[in-house]
Amino acid sequence: MGNRNGVAFSLVSLALTFLLFASQSNAQQTVDPAIKVSPYCVKAIDKPFCTKIVKVADTWQEAITEVLSKAIMQTKMAEPIMANLLITLPSTTDAKLKDDIGSGCRKSYNDALQTLKEVEESLKTGDKTKSANTKISAAMTRLDDCEDEFKKIPMPTEFATFYEGSKKLLSTCLAVERTRPDLV
């Protein structure tokens, strides 16, 4: 019964992730020029997406906290999604390869999550060492390590959507971090 609940949670999480990024993709294609881009999103690749994430932020601290908390939440969803991913890989996939993919991606997402939590703590105390940018970049690299696990078989579409959504949030974190007042 616990496994069934985990799979159901995975599917719901995946559906929410897909809807968030699918709607953002559509919104990006039909950008309304009247929509003002947040000053914290001027360096973002997808400015409308970034602006939607940080829309209520009045300060840089609020903007980075908002986008970072969304990235942490997304990264936390990796565990149940990974469990579902391993079940949905083709039955012809070698068991060792499945284990390697599962453990490699789990480690990548866990490491990324730990790094993002370090950034969160550092920002609460003012990030005196100005390490947030480096650490967010490191978290992105950890996600790339997960992608590397799929060299022998294609990444399933559902997981690819989740992976791309995770990368998009981290890219947005970097963009907001680069507008930090004491760095500009």
TrEMBL record:
InterPro entries: Invertase/methylesterase_inhib (IPR035513), PCW_Enzyme_Inhibitor (IPR052421), Pectinesterase_inhib_dom (IPR006501). It comes from the Eukaryota. GO terms for molecular function: enzyme inhibitor activity. Residues 1-27 form the signal peptide. Gene3D superfamilies: Invertase/pectin methylesterase inhibitor family protein (1.20.140.40). Keywords: Disulfide bond, Signal. The keyword Signal applies. This is Pectinesterase inhibitor domain-containing protein. It comes from Anisodus tanguticus.
